[in-house]
Design goal:
- Helix 1 (about 5-20) runs antiparallel to helix 3.
- With about 80 residues, the chain is mainly α.
- The protein starts with a helix and ends in a 16-residue tail after the last helix.
- The protein is about 45% helix and about 5% strand.
- The chain contains three helices and two strands.
- The chain is globular and about 35 Å long.
- It has a two-stranded antiparallel sheet with strand order 1-2.
Length: about 80
């Protein structure tokens, strides 16, 4: 996220408030979403959220835009196997 730990904690707290148990900062969850099967180096996100509606996606986008926090969307992973 940010080099500012206060900003980082504020954003994580806001996401937790919005998503409850559909937001995770667990190491294993972050590691899973921070890499794929490509040759690019992975970087673990600071948090992972699981929105279930367009309104929730919009809430994340608005929060992160307001705070200057980048967002990396994650679908079902890469399709390097040729699906």
């Amino acid at each position: 996220m940010s080099a500012d730990p206060v900003l980082e904690q504020r954003v994580v707290d806001s996401l937790r408030q919005l998503f409850g148990d559909r937001m995770s900062t667990a190491t294993a969850v972050r590691a899973h979403h921070g890499q794929d099967g490509s040759y690019h180096a992975g970087h673990d996100p600071d948090a992972v959220v699981y929105p279930t509606s367009s309104e929730e996606v919009l809430a994340v986008l608005e929060l992160c835009s307001r705070e200057g926090v980048p967002i990396i969307p994650y679908g079902v992973g890469t399709s390097l196997e040729g699906h």
